[in-house]
Design goal:
With 387 residues, the protein is of the alpha/beta class. The chain contains twelve helices and 16 strands.
Length: 387
């Protein structure tokens, strides 16, 4: 079955929703206006069970099918990014310093499109839990929703989500049967020495030299402590030190990120980073303090649900537009917490040759919204058939 006809007929309406959301971005957990817009649309569709204020501004709505059955969760993120919108479109952000440059406005629209269809037809046996989530970009709204008990409270058996994919063929759907996105950790190393005059460095304990050496040493973790095939990234992205050209500073601070797919690899990185920080610093007469913060875990699809999602995708867009063995990528995603709590799968939906996500000129491709909505709708009807 291709794109659902009634959803395709709603394409202009969905475009209007999406562009309204794009003009009114919100950050983090404070997606109250976005949530109000979502609730207003859901009520128009005839959805009567709506729960607000989950993870501060999240929304969970339940649509009952024609007969009892399991509950399947469909998730969309709602938050924007703290950056300027340089897309140059007529529907560009009206809020300075905030922009939907990752397409969450489109994700919300796709789920609303599916909700409208499912509320009208109810051609399934069971329930759909629509999960409109804040704070994917920073505070982990997915984690908070799980911690607040949405999976148990609404008896969700499986959960699915979609993210747009710049560079992917328009309307294509890709996924895999295991690790799809990386775990995301952050670290800060503070090196402390003894400051003094740069003309007499022998009288100082220079943390700048220690910082340079440690930056290089951290790159040996992959390839010396982990195999190259372990798929780990350790990146020092900031070095902060000094106040004048003729002063050796007292401290130097390194910041960076770690990406990984396997928990054992993460353990090795943490342990080795602590050792390198301590002993590299000591070799230069400095001390080191490591602050290692574990962030979003890897997004790991469940094989059975990923295979099912790929089968539905083939029915919607055709086999030639589906790849269920796509390589994993290193960005992170807090849908990972939902996949830790319940079986499910995450997919990418191609939106053509556009600016990449998080670029100030990025804009969601409205042409793919009916594709994502149709995928969600057909997934529910296929997973929860009416006898």
């Amino acid at each position: 079955m291709p794109i659902v006809n009634s959803i395709a007929a709603s394409a202009e309406e969905m475009k209007t929703w999406r562009r309204h959301l794009h003009q009114h971005p919100e950050l983090g957990l404070d997606c109250f206006k976005t949530a109000a817009f979502v609730v207003e649309r859901l009520k128009e569709f005839g959805v009567t069970e709506i729960h607000e204020g989950i993870a501060r501004s999240g929304v969970v709505a339940i649509i009952e099918g024609r007969a009892p059955g399991r509950t399947i969760g469909l998730r969309a993120d709602m938050d924007a990014l703290p950056m300027e919108d340089l897309s140059g479109t007529e529907h560009a952000s009206t809020v300075p310093g905030m922009a939907h440059t990752c397409g969450h406005d489109g994700h919300t629209t796709m789920l609303l499109g599916a909700a409208k269809y499912l509320a009208e037809t109810r051609n399934f046996a069971g329930r759909v839990a629509l999960l409109f989530q804040p704070a994917e970009e920073n505070e982990g709204g997915g984690r908070i929703m799980v911690e607040e008990g949405v999976m148990d409270r609404f008896d969700i058996a499986e959960v699915y989500g979609i993210h747009n994919m710049p560079g992917g063929e328009v309307g294509s759907l890709v996924t895999n049967h295991g690790a799809l996105l990386a775990g995301v950790d952050e670290f800060t190393v503070t090196l402390t020495g003894k400051g003094g005059h740069a003309a007499e460095p022998q009288e100082t304990v220079d943390p700048v030299v220690a910082a340079a050496s440690l930056t290089m040493a951290l790159q040996t973790i992959l390839g010396r402590n982990l195999a190259a095939l372990d798929r780990v990234v350790v990146s020092v992205t900031q070095i902060h030190t000094g106040s004048a050209m003729n002063i050796v500073p007292e401290t130097a601070v390194l910041n960076g990120t770690v990406r990984y797919y396997d928990k054992d690899a993460q353990t090795v990185v943490k342990a080795r980073m602590a050792e390198l920080a301590e002993f590299q610093a000591r070799s230069f007469g400095c001390t080191a303090e490591l602050d290692y913060e574990e962030g979003y875990p890897p997004t790991i699809n469940h094989p059975e649900q990923a295979a099912f999602a790929a089968r539905v995708a083939r029915e919607v867009v055709g086999a030639d537009k589906v790849d269920d063995d796509t390589p994993p990528i290193m960005p992170g995603e807090d849908f990972s917490y939902m996949l830790q709590a319940r079986p499910g799968a995450y997919l990418f939906l191609g939106q053509g040759e556009t600016a990449v996500c998080h670029h100030p000129e990025y804009d969601f491709n409205d042409d793919i919204a009916p594709v994502g909505a149709s995928f969600f709708a057909r997934l529910i009807e296929t997973a929860l058939p009416v006898d």
